[in-house]
From TrEMBL:
Organism from which the protein derives: Amycolatopsis echigonensis
Protein name as annotated: Rhomboid family intramembrane serine protease
Gene Ontology biological-process annotations: proteolysis
A Gene Ontology molecular function term of the record: serine-type endopeptidase activity
Keywords on record: Hydrolase, Membrane, Protease, Transmembrane, Transmembrane helix
Amino acid sequence: GDFTHGGILSREASGLDGILWAPLLHAGWSHLFSNTVPVLIFSFLAMAAGIGRFAVVTAIIWVVSGLGVWLVGPANAYTVGASGLAFGWLAYLLVRGLFHRSLAQIAVAVVLLGIWSGMLWGLLPGNPGISWQGHLFGALAGILAAWLTSRGERVKSPKAEPTTPGNLGM
């Protein structure tokens, strides 16, 4: 059967519920398989920070990417697929080390960028039938999720003691 009708129908009130279902629906087996490897890898890596954080990050990406597609997606077309989640988790993994000021997370980001940098072309329009809007808003949502989830945990830079004319730091 055709499951695309459960997806996001842009700028139509009746299409808002598609935000809940679109990442679970795919236009066919090849669409499902093309999303499976990145979704499994990126979700596993994002889950390494804990299931609670993973749930929050996933919810942010799911809703923000869906709303983005609903706002600027193609008219009279349903958008389905998990690539918004994949791009969101990838972006989250790429930038969270910067927000957390964590060298280990930055190292993971460098490795991911080396392996998956070709995916970044999917953020741009170009291939008919592929939702660059879902990719772009998924990535933006991943950056937002990294920023929001790191706010209380950012490593502070050590503050230097002020020097005075009589105290030169010795």
